[in-house]
Amino acid sequence: MQKLIGSFFCSLTFFSILTFGIHAAVQAHLGLPPYSNQIVLSYLLNFALAFGIFMLLFFLRKKYSDQLGFLFMFGSFLKFAVFFVFFYPFYKADGALERVEFFAFFIPYLVCLISETWYLIQLLNSPSKKE
């Protein structure tokens, strides 16, 4: 099971860095500052929350195996709460939430969500999840 944690961390790191690089390059190609709209903070917070939520689910897998899906959904709710507390006021300061501002949060959120979902499925389907 420790391999699953290491694999998740490496996968999450790889895909977050890859996506961040592509995201910043696309913004630069479009003539936008590549690190604008709190993109670095967004990737870092999404990465940290995804890893933290997965670790919590991993450690609670024995005691709450039937509720892991609900705990996972609560984790997604937590990420949106972070968005509305830390990012939304900054993005709405000019009176409008622009596409690039939305994507600055949503793209790392989506990458981390896909990684979390894939590895949670691995965890739930693992014959040793009770160990």
Could you walk me through the main structural features you see in this protein, from its secondary elements to its overall organization?
The chain is an all-alpha fold and 131 residues long. The chain has one domain. The protein is 77% helix and 0% strand. It is built from 4 helices and no strands. The protein has helices at 2-29, 39-60, 68-91, 99-125. Helix 1 (2-29) runs antiparallel to helix 4 (99-125) and helix 2 (39-60) packs antiparallel against helix 3 (68-91). The longest helix is centred in the first third of the chain and has 28 residues, at 2-29. The radius of gyration is 16 Å and the shape is globular. The model has no long low-confidence stretch (mean pLDDT 88).
Features:
single chain; 131 residues; mainly alpha
CA radius of gyration is 16 Å
Distance between the termini: 9 Å
Portion in beta strands: under 5%
Anisotropy-based shape: globular
Low-confidence stretches: none
Going by helix content, strand content and strand pairing, the class is mainly alpha
Tally the helices. Answer: 4
Major sheet: none
Number of DSSP strand runs: 0
Write a short abstract of this structure.
The chain is 77% helix and 0% strand. The chain has one domain.
What order do the helices and strands come in, and which of them pair?
Blueprint (H helix, E strand, L loop, with lengths): L1 H28 L9 H22 L7 H24 L7 H27 L6
